[in-house]
Amino acid sequence: MLDCDGVSSQLVASPAIYTSPSWSPDGREIAFSSDLHQRGSDVLGVFVVGESGGEPTRLSEAGHDPDWSPTGEELAFATWEGGGRIMLTSLEGVSRIAIEFPFASRPRWSPEGSRIAFVGDPSATGSQSKECLYVYYLRDQVLELVACQPIGFLQWSPEGDRIAFTAANADGLQLFVVTVGTVPGSIGEPQLAPASGSVSYPAWSPDSREIASVSRDQGIEDVHVATLDCESASGTCQITTRPITDQPTTETEPLWFPDSDHLAYLAGSGSSWRLELVDLDGLRSQVVFHGLTSPHSLDGFIR
User: Fold this and answer.
1) How open is the CA angle 121-71-138, to the nearest 5 degrees?
2) Where residue 275 sits, what CATH number does that domain have?
3) For residue range 37-66, what is the model confidence (pLDDT) as tens digits?
4) Could you write out the three-class secondary structure of 172-211?
5) How many domains does one find in the chain?
6) pTM (predicted TM-score)
7) I want to staple 202 with a disulfide (CB 3.0 to 4.6 A). Which of 32, 38, 124, 164 is the partner?
8) Residue 283 near residue 242, CB atoms below 8 Å
9) The 237-243 sheet, strands edge to edge
C-alpha cells in the first residue's frame, strides 16, 4: 500500500498470488483474490485484510473479482462453480447465489446497491466466446443485456446513472458510455467516446461529469479525459475528449482525487515507475513517489 506521503507498506507477508484488490467503502479494509489457502492451485479464494495489514480473513474458498456493496456489509464475487455464478457473501463468510450465468465474471455494484453489472458468455461454451455486459436488478430479479462485445474494463458512474466500459472493435478497445436507470427497461444505447488508439482503464470523476482513461496509439500510452454533456430527459450525451499527458514514457492507471480537479497516474517504463499527480487546471504535474517496479500497482482509495 502507498499513502499520499509516498510511504509504502506491505499488508500481507505470505508469498502467494494476489489479485483484484477492492477497497471497502470506508477505506478500512481491502478484499482480494488469492491462492493463500491452496498455494500453487488454480483455484483462488476471496479474502479481506485491514488497511494496516495482518492476517487475512478468508470469506470463500473459491472466487475472484470481489467488489464491495455500497454499505460495506457484503461482497459480490464471481466463481466458476456451477458453470458460472455471481455470489454475495457477508463478512462472516455466509454466501448465497445472486446470479447463475455461464462464465460470469467482474461483478460491480451500482452506487446505491440495487443493481449489479457483470460480464458473462451466453453461448455457454467458452470456445466461441460471445462475451456480453449485463445488469441485474436485485429487487426485481431481472437480468438485462447492455452490449455484446468483448468487454474490457467497466465502472459505474458515482451517481449510478451510467456505466463506462471498454469493448473491442476493429480499432481495438474503445470507450463507451451507457445510461442505466434504476428500474428494468431503462437501459439506453451505448455511446462511443471519441479516442485516438485503443482505450483502457476508464475512471469516472467523483462528480460523474468526466471519465479519465488511457489511450494507446502507436505504442505510446497517455492519459485522456472525456467530458460528458448529457441531456437528463433522453440520457444521451455529447462527449468530447482531451489529452492530459504527453510524455515519451507510458502514463497509465489514472485515479481521481475527490475534488475532480486532480488525477494521479503511473508513469515510466520497464521496471522503473513513479506515481505522478496532475492538476487539470493548467495540466501541471509533479512526481509523488519514485521506486515502483510495476505498472500494475495502483488500485486506490484517496481521501
Assistant:
1) 40
2) 2.120.10.30
3) 776 667 899 999 988 778 899 999 999 999
4) EEEEEEEEECCCCCCECCCEECCCCCEEEEEEECCCCCEE
5) 1
6) 0.85
7) 164
8) no
9) 198-204, 210-217, 220-230, 237-243
